Amino acid sequence: MIVCESGVSWLIDDGVRLMPVDAEEWKTLHERFESVLREEGVPYRVLGKEILDLGKRVEVVVDCLRESCRDQRELGEND
To answer: Over the stretch 49-75, which tens digit does the pLDDT of each residue have?
Structure first.
């Protein structure tokens, strides 16, 4: 799972997603969401707010997918 860091400038209200009312609410929601993911054992990576370039964000996501696929193949080999 890819989680966008709270406070990213490139995430805007599109009328569909839940948008926090301010930076503090955003930070609180982000921290709670990460906590739930950890509690449930869901692997995730945070996409940092410093990555402004769309192409770079795509690279990060593709790299994560490649890692996940590689990890799944390795798990299958150990069965």
So the answer is: 899 999 999 999 999 888 887 766 776
Q: Tokens 């996501």 identify what position?
A: 61
Dig out the tokens for 35 from the structure. 């906590």
The residue whose two tokens read 């490139």 is: 10
Q: Structural domain boundaries of the chain?
A: 2-7+17-77
Q: What is the pTM of this model?
A: 0.70
pLDDT in tens, 7-56: 888 888 888 877 888 889 989 989 999 999 999 999 999 999 899 999 99
**Distance separating alpha carbons of residues 9 and 47, to the nearest angstrom:** 12
Contact yes or no for 35/41 (Cβ under 8 A):
no
Q: Which residues are 47's β-sheet partners?
A: 4
Are residues 44 and 3 in contact, defined by beta-carbon separation less than 8 angstroms? yes
